[in-house]
Amino acid sequence: MGQTASQANQPPPSSPQKSGSGCPVPHDSPAASKPAACPVDHGSSSKAPALAECPVGHDGTALNPLNQIPNLSQTPAPHQTSSLPVDRTSSSIPRDHAGNWDYPSPQQFYNALVRKGWETPEEHVEMMVQIHNFLNEKAWEEVLKWEKMAHGDDVRLARFKGRPGELSPKARFYLFAGWLLPSRFNTEPPFDRHDWVVQRPKTGEEVRYVIDYYSAPPEPDGSPVFSLDVRPALDSVGSIGMRMKVATEEAWRSFREKENGTE
C-alpha cells in the first residue's frame, strides 16, 4: 500500500498490475526505450512549466466549481489538422449516487494542451488520454485499499485538484534522501501531484489523499512503468492512525521476511 508501480499497458478499467495487452504506447518508436515520464512532452514549448503537470487544468482556472472539472470545448482548436474523438470514457470512480466521473475526450484533452501553450502532435493525443485515464484508475485502486482497511469500500471521490510543482513533504524527504544516498533512493521528483478528497457517504466524513506520480524504469520490452505513492494526508487523527498502522505492519512484515530468510 502507498507506493505502487503500474505499467501503462491498457486503458481503464485497469487489470492487475503489469498484466494484459494493448499498451497505448507504441513500442516500435525510439522513445519507447526511454524512462517512463509524463505522457505530455513538456520540452516542446517555451511556455511549458519547469515541472511536468497534468494537461487538464485542476488549478481553479475555468473550472466548474461543482466538480473541479474544466469546462473544455469539444470544438476543434484553431490550426488543428485532424479530427479527434469527442466521446468521453466513464471511469470506475464514483462521483455521487447518480454515477461515476467521466474522463475528458481526446478533443477536450487536446484543447487543454493548446490552452496551456504546449505543442503536441495530434496523433499522440489518444495515447496520452489512455495513459492519463490508466493512472487515475490505478490511483483509485490504491485509495480503495486504504479505505477498505479503515472504513469500507462505499466511498466517493468528492473533488480533486492537481498541484504540479508543489512537492509534498514526503516527496521532499525522498529527494533529500536521494541526494544523500543516490544509489538507494530516487533522485527524480514526481512529475505530478494530485490531492483527492474522498467522501464516506454513511458518515459524511471527508478524507484528503495525496498522490505523487513518479516515473519508473521501463520494462525490458520498453513498456513504460509509473510509480504511484498514494496515502491519506496527515491532517486528521484518523488519517495519522491509518498511516501509522500501515507503516507498522510493513515494518513487521519486512522483519519477519528477513528473519525467515536467515533460518
UniProtKB/TrEMBL annotation:
<feature type="compositionally biased region" description="Polar residues">
    <location>
        <begin position="64"/>
        <end position="93"/>
    </location>
</feature>
<dbReference type="Pfam" id="PF01265">
    <property type="entry name" value="Cyto_heme_lyase"/>
</dbReference>
<dbReference type="InterPro" id="IPR000511">
    <property type="entry name" value="Holocyt_c/c1_synthase"/>
</dbReference>
<keyword id="KW-0496">Mitochondrion</keyword>
<dbReference type="GO" id="GO:0046872">
    <property type="term" value="F:metal ion binding"/>
</dbReference>
<feature type="region of interest" description="Disordered">
    <location>
        <begin position="1"/>
        <end position="100"/>
    </location>
</feature>
<comment type="function">
    <text>Lyase that catalyzes the covalent linking of the heme group to the cytochrome C apoprotein to produce the mature functional cytochrome.</text>
</comment>
<keyword id="KW-0479">Metal-binding</keyword>
<keyword id="KW-0349">Heme</keyword>
<dbReference type="GO" id="GO:0005743">
    <property type="term" value="C:mitochondrial inner membrane"/>
</dbReference>
<keyword id="KW-0408">Iron</keyword>
<protein>
    <recommendedName>
        <fullName>Holocytochrome c-type synthase</fullName>
        <ecNumber>4.4.1.17</ecNumber>
    </recommendedName>
</protein>
<keyword id="KW-0999">Mitochondrion inner membrane</keyword>
<keyword id="KW-0472">Membrane</keyword>
<comment type="similarity">
    <text>Belongs to the cytochrome c-type heme lyase family.</text>
</comment>
<dbReference type="GO" id="GO:0004408">
    <property type="term" value="F:holocytochrome-c synthase activity"/>
</dbReference>
<keyword id="KW-0456">Lyase</keyword>
